[in-house]
Amino acid sequence: MTNIVRFAPLAIASGLAGALPLAPALADGHWPERPLSTLEPVAEPRNGPLSEAEMEMAEIAWRYFENNTQAGTGFANAANNYPSVTLWDTGSYLAAIVSAHGLGLIKDAEVEGRLDPLLATLGSLDLFRQDCPNKVYNTQTAVPATYTNEPGEIGCSVLDIARLLVWLRIVEQRYPEREAEVRAILPRWNWCELVRDGVLYGAAPGEGEQVLWLQEGRLGYEEYGARAVELWGFDAGVALDPEPYSALWMYGVEVPFDTRDPRLMGAHNYVVTESYALLGLEFGFDDPAGEGPGAWIARAAQNIYEVQARRHEATGILTARTEHQLLEAPYFVYDTIFSSGRPWATITDLGQSVPEHAAVALKGALGLWALWETEYTGQLFDHIAPQFDPELGFFEGVYEDGRGSIEVQTANNNGIMLESLFFKAEGPILEPVEDPAAWTAGLDPALGRCLPVTVEDEPADGAATEDASTEGVATEG
Length: 477
Hints:
By secondary structure, the protein is of the alpha+beta class. Helices cover 37% and strands 13% of the residues.
């Protein structure tokens, strides 16, 4: 039997927020204060048919997927011409398919030809320790792989799974004939450990057959992951709550950050654009004047936009900060608004400072452009529009120091760019889900996977089902 080691999800470093340096230059000056309690949006989202230039951008972004899809498995390569992928990237590929179809770039037959092998592959993946999808797969063989694309198991990422879940739900909504294929994917996974007591957990291999289940997600991405699993009826209320967080003032804007100490928790805290942009593009922002986590996210997202616009106003540096790939070592960086006590930090996954890799990330810039129609985001659009190879798709970014483009093409970047353009045409991409757990109707509780309770099956007296009492999770979404 597999050994399980569980780590406390909310260990907080006492006094961490108070110890952070708040540079006076970032908080003072002529800037009008914009606290997190501000209810008025800084701008409305863009909306309407795409212009000729915007359609050209969509066509170029789609070219990446024309060049990087594996016919046998249906997977798209995470990076150009490299046969490796994560479920996060696969979610972005589904975003590209839906968006390209919605924008008229591809026809029904091509959607069918792409979804057929991909959904079949997702429904038959070899799982990490029979529990959950491996973090990486070879796109040619669908064999679990390491980060160097050698065969091997390296664990599961619940946040990667969450991104896939969002787009599986969208596929089901837009192509209802795919419902059975989509719903056959999820029951194979061990939800008893991925979502427990409202918290999201990823997995890593321990010694021998041991599996380490580790809380996963920090402010922004944790809320995105929670919203994703709740689309399918799981209770992720603890993960959805923004606490524990604090805030600092930058250019008169109150910017929230996660206060869990990376020295204790083993994961850095990154304030970046992508998670907030995806929440807006896919789910749509709640009314900022409302109550609860959704309204908080809407207010926080406005400030994530505003602090970057004000940095540009103060320094002349076009700013759209989020994680991105590189052509050379360290190959991937978190390009942040704030991280580990440092404003505008660009760091590796191990926390090493690499400020020379600060860049305008194209996916971040276009997400800001779609969600806030301002003069500043118009400048961002003009800045990134020429950053492409006409045969391969859009580059990852443009260095802030002026030395040129990051000439790497990826599925995540081009997929998010496509969904940003689709958002402009249609608005938030997800439709409301009336009964998130309906997909479990008729499934055998003996599966022992802690599946959620559908409205029809929920006991009238509110008691938990037998599966829930023995396995640990059963909620209405």
